[in-house]
């Protein structure tokens, strides 16, 4: 009986190993590189993204005004028009688009768009992974620096190797990696180690080996 069970386990292990080997033949392609529309700290404009709360005011037409949540597909549905694409646009761009859309139904529409909740597209968020106290994705804010970002994630863990941290940034469709001196910045107070952060940046913080 035990011999039969052992043979069964061996057969199952063989089938599982063959299955896993077959799965590894065709690895998934790497993630699509998404360029941020912000290339310097001086030209930043907030872009609407999924999960954002958008308030659309149509002058003299309160029935067409209202608050909307951007769907995961980057669109909203208004009282007159379904599936209005909004993700990746500034509030001003969306206002002009809504005026063009509503001009089919009312004369000379005047639209104002404001934001009541901020998430932004993934391409505009900043991510901190690894040995941070609270690694997470954060919505970029104008003139955000590395120090601001590390305060937002609670700093480094006890075992973080901050001076081995890397910043990954997409520029001209290519991912580029830069060295960071987080130990010097946070633990030694060397403000010269502070650098500007741009939307889409990824901070990778390894742990020390000893």
> What is the percent of helical residues?
10-25%
Morphology call = elongated
User: What Rg do the Cα atoms give?
Assistant: 24 Å
Class inferred from helices and paired strands: alpha+beta
CATH fold-type name of the largest domain? Outer membrane lipoprotein wza fold like
CATH-level-2 architecture of the largest domain = Roll
How do the helices and strands follow one another from N- to C-terminus?
HEEEEHEEEHEEHE
By DSSP, the count of extended strands is: 10
Q: According to CATH, what is the class of the largest domain?
A: Alpha Beta
Major sheet: arrangement of strands: 7-6-10-8-9
Low-confidence stretches: none
Major β-sheet annotation: 5 strands, mixed
Q: Hey, roughly how much beta strand do the residues contain? A: 15-25%
Please state the average pLDDT score.
Answer: 90
Report the span from N to C terminus: 50 Å
Number of domains: 2
In CATH terms, the superfamily of the largest domain is Outer membrane lipoprotein wza domain like
InterPro entries: PEP-CTERM_polysacc_export (IPR017477), Poly_export (IPR049712), Poly_export_N (IPR003715), Soluble_ligand-bd (IPR019554)
Domain Soluble ligand binding: 126-178
Pfam families: Poly_export (PF02563), SLBB (PF10531)
Signal peptide: 1-27
């Amino acid at each position: 009986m035990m011999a039969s069970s052992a043979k069964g386990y061996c057969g199952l292990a063989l089938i599982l190993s063959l299955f896993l080997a077959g799965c590894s033949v065709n690895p998934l392609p790497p993630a699509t590189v998404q360029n941020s529309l912000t290339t310097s700290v001086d030209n930043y404009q907030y872009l609407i993204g999924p999960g954002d709360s958008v308030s659309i005011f149509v002058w003299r037409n309160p029935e067409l005004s209202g608050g909307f949540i951007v769907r995961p597909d980057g669109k909203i549905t208004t009282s007159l028009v379904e599936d209005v694409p909004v993700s990746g646009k500034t509030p001003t761009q969306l206002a002009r688009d809504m005026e063009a859309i509503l001009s089919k139904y009312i004369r000379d529409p005047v639209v104002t768009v404001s934001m009541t909740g901020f998430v932004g597209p993934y391409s505009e968020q900043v991510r901190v992974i690894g040995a941070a106290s609270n690694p997470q994705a954060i919505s970029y804010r104008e003139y955000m620096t590395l120090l601001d970002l590390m305060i937002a994630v609670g700093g480094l863990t006890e075992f973080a190797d901050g001076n081995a941290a890397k910043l990954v940034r997409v520029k001209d469709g290519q991912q580029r990696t830069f060295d960071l001196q987080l130990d010097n910045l946070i633990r030694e107070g060397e403000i010269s180690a502070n650098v500007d952060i741009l939307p889409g940046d990824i901070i990778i913080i390894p742990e020390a080996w000893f």
